[in-house]
Amino acid sequence: MKRPFVTLPQLQEIVKTYPTPFHLYDEKGIRENARAMKAAFAWNPGFKEYFAVKATPTPAILKLLREEGCGVDCSSLTELMLSDRCGFGGSEIMFSSNDTPAEEFVLADKLGATINLDDFTHIDFLQKTIGHIPETISCRYNPGGTFTLGESKEGFQVMDKPGDAKYGFTRPQLTEGFKKLKEMGAKHFGLHAFLASNTLSNDYYPALARILFQTAVELQKETGCHIAFINLSGGVGVPYRPDQTANDIAVIGEGVRKAYEEVLVSAGMGDVSIFTELGRFMLAPYGCLVTKATHFKHTYKEYVGVDACAANLMRPAMYGAYHHITVMGKEDAPCDHVYDVTGGLCENNDKFAIDRALPEIDLGDLLVIHDAGAHGHSMGYQYNGRLRSSELLLRPDGSVKLIRRAETPADYFATMVFD
Ligand SMILES: *Cc1c(COP(=O)(O)O)cnc(C)c1O
Questions:
Q1: How many Å lie between the centroid of ligand 1 and the Cα of residue 73?
Q2: 137 lines ligand 1 (CB under 6 A)
């Protein structure tokens, strides 16, 4: 059973100051999880988590993660600018972009970020753009084909198709790329791969690590390059559904350690640092979208209209993603009503839930939409003239801080040209 990190009395207090809808983040949960992450990889002295900025690009959140020892993973000019303004610099920034505009490489280089190249042709492009090849450089690997991990009753535990993904170097391109980069002055190399998203398995990172570790050993033999770090990227998932089991980061860290010992240490490469770029795992469960029931509609189905819409949380509309909903104050009431929970966009996919069994909802009830802390507010948009909501931080002492104001019509009109 999923419980919100906030109580009804707390929310009733918050809505006196901040009208719904809003995103609410749990500082305590974020910090505890970041510490568990760090502890799970403490066996690796160079370990660093580079939080994927795109998941939650909010200064207060980024600063909080920085206090917990995290860096940032950026993939655009504005994410680099944001990270710079939040105090990140140098080796605290990983720049993993694709189809990269020249100005982004320029800024990444100026900030001293570690550049993770997405393609072989970007080697010459980078050299031409910034006039040199940095001493530390990373390449993204795409092994192609299909990535599968174990079989369960429902089929494969994890299955993704790297071969269909636009990212990364092929295996032969990696060898050629490392050789070329070395000739151009690179001294320390990183290897990166992202093979599957939102994996609910403690085996994903260890399996990916094994592939990257073996590849690193081969590359070191073939090219003589010094492999300084291996970046396991994102992809560790969270249980959006109440019947799913959460990943255990301690077990994951231990699985990676085992592969590290077996592959890297035995090859004399025990100095390699492990990096991660998790977004969802770091934030999703520690943020929720709070909204209010504003209308009921009884036609061919039973609808509850709420004051949030897909502009605030796009995942259900975009991917049909499940987000658990708690009707506040009715946590233990029987789920004996079936509703579609809808927002107000003129798009029939603007539904937070379809045919969801919930307790009977009354007008004005507060609904918590769970696991919206990553890829939630950040995917927001202004379609239909709906504006993005505010973001609030619930502090460990129970107080609440506004960390992003809601958009106003002035924001909507700001880019328009009327004459
Ligand atoms: C999106 C992304 C991540 C984070 O992915 P999660 O699924 O949120 O963990 C990490 N690295 C790169 C390069 C990404 O594009």
A1: 8
A2: no
